[in-house]
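hiii so um. not sure if this is the right channel but i have a protein structure encoded as tokens and i wanna go backwards to a sequence. like what aa goes where. can anyone help
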């Protein structure tokens, strides 16, 4: 079922936090990715956190982010409501308070992430606190970020990173009232390899411990987690991380599946002489419609994405732990 209620998502994270496991929160840029994610999660009986960035909404809405959110949100609801697992939507890396208010007013997301991490501490606190105020009466959870993650995310480039200060993390949560805290521990947006990262798992452990001591326990979030090894993800889940953001992995699987499909069926789709004429009405050679029908490659994309999220559900520990089935 598609769940728009923040309190239900809070139950999901609370159970994960208590059980020492996490969720792969999955960005969607294209409907076939979404369907693959839902199918794979349902097979594993793992509730699913989908994510939309503003740029994904703008792409779906042909430039209109709110129209794109409504279109994709309705799509998610119609497909998700056919499932027994819970399907939730988080709005990822939002910065514009006006768009955040519009997104919340649609009633579609159950959580939003305000990203003011490029600001100084005081400005980040003020901006994040204002978003918490906007969302608190609408049953929408707020994820805020303290620390900066290197790489490009949603057209925003952070050439440098800095680690989250555990002492400041406690002060930040106290002052903002955020429901989830995204921390910087050395991961990177985009293509990265966990074996090459200067990963600081101790920061997650210290932040988690200090928040518990101050009776402000929160689910921790790691962005840029595509490059993390399986073992790194498992260890971080044991240290308070309940949400790993995944985007690059699905984009790559989408492109790799399509590239392999078209390479495998090149002679069925491209004319042998390299002609650019309209082969559907001219010449003696004809392509094979069974191969160029976009639903054929899309089916393979969906299946490969479903296998990826299924694997991630096993690694993070969310498999078999749905609140709903």
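sure thing!! here u go:
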């Amino acid at each position: 079922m598609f769940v728009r209620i923040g309190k239900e998502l809070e139950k999901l994270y609370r159970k994960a936090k208590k059980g020492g496991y996490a969720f792969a929160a999955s960005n969607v840029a294209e409907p076939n990715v979404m369907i693959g994610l839902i199918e794979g999660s349902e097979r594993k009986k793992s509730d699913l956190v989908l994510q939309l960035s503003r740029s994904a909404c703008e792409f779906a809405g042909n430039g209109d982010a709110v129209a794109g959110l409504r279109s994709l949100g309705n799509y998610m609801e119609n497909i998700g409501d056919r499932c027994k697992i819970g399907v939730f939507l988080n709005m990822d890396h939002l910065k514009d308070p006006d768009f955040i208010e519009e997104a919340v007013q649609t009633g579609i997301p159950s959580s939003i992430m305000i990203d003011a991490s490029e600001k100084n501490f005081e400005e980040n606190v003020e901006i994040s606190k204002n978003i918490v105020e906007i969302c608190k009466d609408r049953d929408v959870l707020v994820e805020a970020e303290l620390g900066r993650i290197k790489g490009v995310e949603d057209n925003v480039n952070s050439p440098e990173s800095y680690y989250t200060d555990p002492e400041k993390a406690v002060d930040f949560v106290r002052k903002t009232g955020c429901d989830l805290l995204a921390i910087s521990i050395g991961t990177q947006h985009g293509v990265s390899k966990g074996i090459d990262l200067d990963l600081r798992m101790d920061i997650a452990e210290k932040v988690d411990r200090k928040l518990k001591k101050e009776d402000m326990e929160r689910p921790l979030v790691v962005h840029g987690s595509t490059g993390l090894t399986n073992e790194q993800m498992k260890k971080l889940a044991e240290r308070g991380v309940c949400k790993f953001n995944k985007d690059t992995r699905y984009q790559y699987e989408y492109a790799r599946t399509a590239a392999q499909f078209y390479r495998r069926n090149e002679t069925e789709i491209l004319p042998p002489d390299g002609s650019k004429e309209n082969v559907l009405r001219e010449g003696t050679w004809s392509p094979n419609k069974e191969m160029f029908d976009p639903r054929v490659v899309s089916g393979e994309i969906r299946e490969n994405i479903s296998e990826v999220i299924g694997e991630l559900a096993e690694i993070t520990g969310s498999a078999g732990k749905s609140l709903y089935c």
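oh and The radius of gyration is 21 Å.
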